[in-house]
Amino acid sequence: MTWITxxxxxxxxxxxxQGRRQARSARRRTEDASVRLHQLQAHQRALxxxxxxIAWLKDRDSRFLMVNRKFAELFxxxxxxxxxxxxxxxxxxxxxxxxQQIDRDVMATRAPQRVEERIANTEGGTNWAETIKVPxxxxxxxxxxxxxxxxxxxxxxxxxxxxxxxxxxxxxTGLHNxxxxxxxxxxxxxxxxxxxxxxxxxxxxxxxxxxxxxxxxDEVLRILAARLKNLTQDDELLVRLGGDEFLLLKSLTDLxxxxxxxxxxRIEEAIGAPCRVSGNRYVVSSSIGIASYxxxxxxxxxxxxxxxIAMYEAKKSGRHRYCWFHxxxxxxxxxRRNIELRIREALEADxxxxxxxxxxxxxxxxxIGAEALIRLKDRGGQAIPPALFIPIAEQGGLIEPIGExxxxxxxxxxxxxxxxGHTDLQLAINISGTQFASGRFxxxxxxxxxxxxxxxxxxxxxxxxxVLMADVEKAQSILSRIGALGVRLAVxxxxxxxxxxxxxxxxxxxxxxxxxxxxxxLPSHPGDTAITRSILQLAKTFLLEVTAEGVETQDxxxxxxxxxxxxxxxxxxxxxxxxAEFSALLERRHLP
Length: 592
Prior knowledge:
By secondary structure, this protein is α/β, with parallel strands linked by helices. Helix content is 50%, strand content 23%. The chain has 4 domains: 14-46; 51-157, 2-Layer Sandwich (Beta-Lactamase), CATH 3.30.450.20; 172-325, 2-Layer Sandwich (Alpha-Beta Plaits), CATH 3.30.70.270; 354-588, TIM Barrel (Alpha-Beta Barrel), CATH 3.20.20. The strands form 4 sheets. The chain has an 8-stranded mixed beta barrel with strand order 13-14-16-17-18-19-20-21, surrounded by 4 helices. α9 (206-212) packs antiparallel against α10 (214-230).
């Protein structure tokens, strides 16, 4: 500064200098504030961009003041280019109007709102988003805009949808499941004045799973489910109840029995058509039960139960057919349930009993053996016929423990009689197909024989032709192992089953038992006499012994003696007796 300039400055008043300093200070404060504002905005943007979700800030007019980079990229823009835009600039008019209405609601209520919605993505599709919008306040507490965060929940919604689908659908067939039936039954009943429940069960489907594997069985189920679906109208409900069971709720304005009968036949035809899986051909049939709403049940439990009862009646009547429910079936089912309960009680409390029917030499009448026959009484002391409770035990999976009890108890009694000197007595016990085919039957039999101390040759097991012919190779293997124990084998009810007799020369059989249905007509009925003579001649050819069951008259006995029958069994000699009474018969050994 020159002396002239310095002099001029010195002449300036103090106030001027003060104003100048104040101006510089104000300018510096403005500059500092601007820097701080830019720094704040940079921090805000950095903060916004650090959020994994999309985020934005709007003014009171729903125009964007700030968005993060993830939001901007969703619409193919930069964050700076989004400032000043509204929802109408980036979304459809309908979507924009909905978004701005939410903004107004948030500002009016001064409260956050959470919504789940679909939003467009850059690929032209849509994603699911969970959006939270909150009001923004100034230092005076006035609402000056809104802020929002939206999280992509597309994956979560996919799994929620999948979980919801699986909660109400069968994953194998895609049909509705039992849970859906329970939740929708009342609504279905409101929509339809009358309808029927058609309960369908596949016959012998388990065989496919057992022989070819569950993957093949599953594919067969998918094919059959699709066929059932093709028979179903939009206002009807088709459900896979589980396993190989399906249920169809068929609506009707007026219950037309003929129409339902025709539908049942179409279902049978559709199910019975061959299924081809992996180049193999599979054919199954169906048993169908039908119950009507509200006559046979006003809620889903009772209606399905009664349709199920009718289905079992169809299955019991020979399978591959349909049956309508009626009250007599319900009574029979109640009786069957009570008998099954009694069977379980008897097993737990050891309340079964064995009676023994003598098997006598046809010529001399001497007792040479006995057949062990199981007996059961109800709680009132009345006998329950074996013909009634044995099938129920088989259906309820109880026949194996019953069979084990019979063999164990019978061998124990036989050991007692042998101790009394009856060492030549032979005990016959009938074996069910289920027990025979069980994996460890032979091992159990060996242990029971060893425990009793009775030689295997004193025991004779009786099996029907049906059991032997179900799987000849398997039967041959099992019978060979049983024969190795010394146990004798008899074919029970011979002549009532298979016409092929080739198994007689392949299986280790010792005895044939002529069924009582043939003995009944002796000696007057030509057919029965011819069949009996043929069986006796066949047995002679194969060196087998023969026992005739159900001998009740002297004429029958005389015919059998002359025809060469080895042994007889029936009421002519004695009815089945408890062990103590049978012991008394053994004291004299000879019967008329």
